[in-house]
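Now for a typical sample entry:
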Amino acid sequence: MPAQTIGMTTLQQRGLNLAALDGSSTAELLEWHDARTRLPDADMTVLVWTRDEHGAGDWASAWWDGEQWIDCASGGVVEIDVTHWAQPEGPAHEG
């Protein structure tokens, strides 16, 4: 069974009311990849999860340039540890 199907089943079992999501709402499950074992293609913008020296977590958009993580907001190198990354797909194209 695909991970997305398992995830949605788990969310429904825990009380997510899918009927409450109208046509303009979108729910998307993210597949997080461990940045120590897998990196995105170079220059692909992704969502990253970071941890600072105190263990506090946060997210940002960034890309892997083939050697280091680059923060989309500043254009500078991400100075804290990137632990995971995901590639959100966003809402489906409606055309």
In short: The mean pLDDT is 83. Residues 19 and 31 are 23 Å apart (CA to CA).
